Amino acid sequence: MEPLLLWGIGLLVAALALLLMEFFVPSAGIIAVLAAGCAIAGLVCLFKFSPTWGILGLMGMLVAVPGVLYSGVSLWRNTPLGRRMIGIPSEEQVAESAAKEDAFVRSRMQLLNKEGVVITDLRPVGLIEIDGVRHDALCDSDFLHPGARVRVVHVEANQVRVRAVS
To answer: Smallest Cα–Cα separation from 159: which of 131, 124, 115, 118?
Structure first.
């Protein structure tokens, strides 16, 4: 094979490899500029060898570059740096958040059957206080005035349902 043809194909392959490497090596775009330079030099070599090879190389790059970019992004988002930049939580963060949520649900479930005092009008939603802690509550009846005694009858994750104590 002709050396000019080999140089052209080799530079195009090097450009694609450099473009993929840009995703994993922090270089502030220097590797991408080198990839563009290799691609241009490779296309020039192919066009000097033959216009047919030049057009084939150009068409190949038009197809390969988006494929390499897609592959790079797909691989990059699974790296620790990619997850941090995209905002995908790590496994430790997911476990910590699940533990916090479980603790919150358990603390809410402890409110069941406890009695408290209405702080703001419950019509039907308002604030109640149980053991010195304020909670948003939903009243089973239509309206309760501040100071009324209530009992927790149902607890969901973010909702405390109360009923007036007679």
So the answer is: 124
- End-to-end CA, the chain: 98
Query: What residues contact 69, with CB distance under 8 A and at least 6 apart?
Result: 19
- Cα–Cα distance measured from residue 163 to residue 151, given in angstroms and rounded to the nearest whole number: 5
pTM of the model: 0.56
Is CATH 2.40.50.140 what the domain over 93-164 is classified as, yes or no?
Answer: yes
- Residue labelled with tokens 């939580």: 89
At residue 119, the 3 state secondary structure works out as coil
d(CA 120, CA 114): 18
Statement: residue 159 has pLDDT above 90: no
The domain segmentation of the chain, as residue ranges, is 3-86, 93-164
Distances 95 to 85, 86, 92, 112 between C-alpha atoms, Å: 20, 19, 5, 27
pLDDT tops 80 at residue 5: yes
* Diameter over CA atoms, the chain: 99
Tokens of 23: 């995703």
